[in-house]
Specification:
globular; 19 strands; Alpha-Beta Plaits; 376 residues; Gyrase A, domain 2; alpha+beta; six-stranded mixed β-sheet; Elongation Factor Tu (Ef-tu), domain 3
């Protein structure tokens, strides 16, 4: 297909996954079915290969100061702390939403989205005053193990007490894998820049709204790591999950999708993300956001919950009578709620929760209420 592939691609294909192109990568959309995989994550655990996500390592004197200046949120300087944030251009528009994890003094991992990775890497590089940046994306996986039983399953593979690891914390954990570790992890190859010898970086983060972890092993651990995680959780109901259920899971929680809910034209205020903006520090785009906040009158990303049968989709018009008052950015039939849900940019006057609107689905207006996400 000419697209990039993660080291687990052959395994996904062998499991019968339906492969689709996403952000230039060949990725599994589903294995058995989106609804089935979605509900497995809500009820037990699911394992996602999201190794297409960008993994950028920033290090050197002054890294924390530089990272904080790029970020709307305050980035912690304490090793083992992670934080979700926006990167903005000078006009306050979102370039990407990312997670920065402090690995050590002036040492940070930035996990960014797959599509914008090349330009985000170049943008960060262009704004660094002294630190160096390495793109580790080809060398490290990102495995997301998500769901209420994920911690129990992962605990079976490590001596580290996962119960003491709070959300948005990070730790290097040793993993007991079948057949031992490959040479790359035993000190005979280059050291792992993300974890100490024989360990794997794990963060208590995710994109599903469930408890869980994101693991960043070297690519050499792809197959043994994937197989061991699934085996550890099999009796608990853990299954492999594709990008289809990842999308429905994140939408139920109101999480943004890069390239769809923001496209380079929207600000943090318009995406209803002012909670990510810490006004008391200087960051790129701050002046533009302050000016927009003072002006007011901007559209706002809100949730829609359908009151009639129908599935809202990206691009559907939101109506008040015959007047268009917004556009859907993401929509689906919620597997958990069994109703149509959506995110949509709404005009002033139609943003308050409880406002009654309609969604134009194939020419038929379907009644919906405006709600503030999450949907569950």
């Amino acid at each position: 297909m000419g697209n990039l592939r993660t080291p687990l691609f052959d395994g996904h294909a062998a499991r019968g996954a339906r492969i689709v192109e996403f952000a230039g990568w060949d990725m599994p959309l589903l294995y058995t079915g989106i609804v089935e995989e979605h509900l497995a994550v809500r009820r037990a655990a699911g394992l996602f290969d999201v190794s297409h996500m960008g993994k950028l390592l920033l290090e050197g004197p002054g890294t924390h100061a530089d990272v904080n200046r790029l970020s709307t949120n305050d980035i912690p300087a304490t090793p083992g702390r992670a934080r979700y944030t926006h990167l903005l251009d000078d006009r306050g528009r979102i370039l990407d939403d990312v997670i920065f994890t402090c690995l050590g003094p002036d040492r940070f991992l930035c996990v960014c989205n797959a599509g914008p990775r090349p330009r985000i890497a170049a943008w960060i590089q262009g704004h660094l005053r002294g630190p160096t940046m390495r793109d580790l994306t080809p060398d490290h996986l990102c495995l997301a193990f998500q769901g209420p039983r994920a911690a129990e399953a992962l605990q079976r593979l490590t001596s580290t007490d996962l119960g003491s690891l709070k959300p948005f914390r990070a730790v290097a954990i040793p993993l007991a894998l079948p057949g031992g570790s490959p040479p790359e992890t035993e000190g005979r190859g280059p050291p792992d820049p993300l974890a100490s010898r024989g360990a794997v970086l794990a963060t208590r983060t995710g994109y599903t709204g469930e408890d869980g972890f994101e693991l960043f092993p070297r690519s050499a651990l792809a197959v043994p790591g994937w197989d061991a995680l699934l085996a550890a959780g099999r009796d608990l109901g853990a299954v492999p999950v594709g990008l289809g259920a990842r999308d429905t899971l994140r939408l139920e929680k109101g999480y943004l999708l890069s390239g769809q809910d923001f496209t380079g034209n929207e600000t943090s205020l318009e995406t209803n993300s002012e909670w990510l903006v810490k006004w008391d520090h200087d960051f790129i785009g701050r002046d533009a956001l302050l000016a927009q906040k003072a002006r007011g009158g901007y559209r706002l990303l809100m949730g829609l919950r359908l009151l009639e049968k129908g599935v809202p989709r990206h691009g559907c018009r939101v109506l008040s009578g015959d007047r268009e008052v917004g556009r859907v950015t993401s929509g689906t039939m919620s597997p958990s709620l069994r109703v149509g849900i959506a995110l949509a940019y709404l005009d002033p006057g139609f943003q308050a929760p409880g406002t009654r609107v309609a969604v134009d689905i194939r020419g038929e207006p379907k009644a919906a209420d405006v709600v503030k996400p999450p949907f569950l």
